[in-house]
Every structure is written in C-alpha cells, then in structure tokens.
UniProtKB/TrEMBL annotation:
<dbReference type="InterPro" id="IPR050109">
    <property type="entry name" value="HTH-type_TetR-like_transc_reg"/>
</dbReference>
<dbReference type="InterPro" id="IPR001647">
    <property type="entry name" value="HTH_TetR"/>
</dbReference>
<protein>
    <submittedName>
        <fullName>TetR/AcrR family transcriptional regulator</fullName>
    </submittedName>
</protein>
<dbReference type="InterPro" id="IPR009057">
    <property type="entry name" value="Homeodomain-like_sf"/>
</dbReference>
<dbReference type="Pfam" id="PF00440">
    <property type="entry name" value="TetR_N"/>
</dbReference>
<keyword id="KW-0238">DNA-binding</keyword>
<feature type="DNA-binding region" description="H-T-H motif">
    <location>
        <begin position="43"/>
        <end position="62"/>
    </location>
</feature>
<keyword id="KW-0805">Transcription regulation</keyword>
<feature type="domain" description="HTH tetR-type">
    <location>
        <begin position="20"/>
        <end position="80"/>
    </location>
</feature>
<keyword id="KW-0804">Transcription</keyword>
Length: 223
C-alpha cells in the first residue's frame, strides 16, 4: 500500500520498545479523535495535546496527519483480512454467488462495528496521496477477494482486474450508504451483493464455458 506514496504520508516504524509503546499510544488516541471529531477535527497538534506529548514527539513517527491515517488503514485491512481468513473454509464451500453475499455480510459487520475504519475506508480521499492510498486499498481488497472466491473455480486473470473492479463497486455502494445514513444499511448491503454478482457473472460464466469446452483434436491425415 505504501508504494508510490510520498514519504511524508508513511509512518516511520520504531525499533525500540519504548518508542513502539509511544507509537501505539499515538495511534490509539488518533482513532479516538477520529471517532469524536471526524477528519475536520483531526490534527497532530490535537493528538499531541490530548496525550500531553510535544508535537515533535509525534512528528518523529508521523511526518503528516496522513501518515497516521494511512497507518490506521493498513491495520484495518489486516483486521478485515483476519475476518475473512477465519472463515476461509466456510467461504470455499459456497458457490461464488453465495460466497460474495457472505463476504459482503462480513464486510458490513466489520464497517458498522468500527466507525474509524468506516470513516477512513469509505469517507473518500482528501489529498492525492490519500487517493492513491485508497486505490491501493481497493486493489488489496480485490486481491483478497480473488483468493477467497477463486478456490475451486476459474477466475479470469485479466485485464481487466475483475476482482478489484468488483471491490470498487462494493465500496462505492457502501460509501453511498455511509454518506446518506452514517452506516451500511440492509438495503445497501443487498444492493452491493446484487451489483457485485451482476458485474462478475458474465466474466465467470464465460470463463466456465472456456474451461468446460472440449479441446478439438486435429484429425490425422490418411497416408
């Protein structure tokens, strides 16, 4: 996710335990501030004041506020991966349509239970770097979807990258629900499932026909 991002938008990972503890406290407080004040009230001076730290001690790890936000997004994606992989066997046993429905249901539960993650992943990009980070987030989700959905079935390799596009579609539906209602509602959950299945179906049906089609043998010439 950090590829091609401005270095100022990337956290500087500490190596010493004391520094790691401070790094974690900053992220925990940043998450609380996001939930309480949203992006408009989010800043490094505000975080430093809440923790009783100097601004410099926060900037030492996070050169800009976007470095904090990108680090949080990375962690939320790891949490979301854990949700999916903990149910890997269940998802692999389903047909791809039911698999998408189940993945969307798990994603809805995750977003609705994590307001800061919902804000950062669905809230929309605010800078060029956050836009690039967001696009990498969707690519990451698409790659995750490919690993979940591809078991036991053939997925086209692309281009286009159909699983990333499918993740883009689901995210767009989630984002609309978040904008209108502040959460993912059942109606928008169902809309995401319908839209994602409708998008993938032609690709998977075509791929299935290609896989099932018998190979034509060239007839031998008579001597």
């Amino acid at each position: 996710m950090d590829d091609a991002l401005d270095p100022l938008a990337i956290a500087k990972q500490p190596t010493q335990q004391r520094a790691k503890d401070r790094f974690e406290r900053i992220l925990q407080e940043a998450e609380k501030l996001l939930i309480e004040a949203g992006l408009s009230g989010f800043s490094i001076p505000a975080i430093a004041e809440r923790l009783g730290y100097t601004r410099g001690s926060v900037y030492a790890y996070f050169p800009t506020p976007y470095a904090i936000l990108n680090e949080l997004v990375k962690r939320y994606l790891v949490e979301l991966e854990t949700v999916f992989y903990s149910r890997a066997e269940e998802l692999r046993a389903l047909g791809w349509r039911e698999g998408i429905a189940r993945v969307v249901e798990h994603a809805v539960k995750f977003h609705n239970a994590n307001p800061a993650a919902r804000l950062l992943i669905l809230g929309g990009a605010v800078t060029d770097d956050s836009y690039r980070a967001q696009e990498r987030t969707n690519k990451h989700l698409g790659d995750l979807g490919r690993r979940v959905w591809s078991s036991g079935r053939a997925l086209p390799k692309g281009p286009p990258d159909v699983t990333t596009l499918c993740a883009d579609i689901g995210t767009a539906v989630f984002r609309r629900s978040f904008f209108e209602h502040g959460e993912i509602t059942p109606a928008y959950r169902d809309a995401a499932i319908t839209a994602m299945i409708g998008f993938l179906a032609p690709y998977l049906d075509t791929q299935a026909r290609k896989t099932a089609a018998p190979t034509k043998k060239t007839p031998k010439k008579s001597k």
